[in-house]
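Project standup — Tuesday

K.O.: blocked on the structure for the chain from last sprint. Re-posting the sequence here as requested.
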Amino acid sequence: MILEGFARCQFVMRARHARELGNKIWKETEHNLDFVFERDSIAYGVEVKNALGYMEREEFDTKIKLCRSIDVLPVFAVRMLPRTWIHELIQLGGFALILKYQFYPWSHRELAKRVAKELNLPVDTPRALAEGTMVRFLKWPERKLSREGQIR
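H.V.: unblocked you, prediction finished:
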């Protein structure tokens, strides 16, 4: 869904499971980014987490370092992050694309309904990302530009 959402907004996928971009290579760990998308000559390193719980703090920090080392802006497409991490990510020039729900495949919609109702968990089975989700991301560079005077 993330790939389709970015493609729908005219982003070009430059890499998948990326540890390098151009001549810049991440060598500190075996970590990679799920996607690197580009639009308007700006590259975004996108890490996707479709879990109910938070990702590990160490992984969060490592992914940010990876993004910086290959010169892409860090973007986390996640169900949720702690507010302090979101603030920290923004301070570092990144973006948290909060999805709110854990997504199940469309073919599992009945199971998702049961999980949501009986366990009161935030799960859903959309066919695509909601329009507003990508709009939030698309408005981010404009806000970043007005806040900083330029996009880094």
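K.O.: great, moving the ticket to review. The helical segments are 2-8, 57-69, 83-91, 109-119, 131-148. The mean pLDDT is 91.
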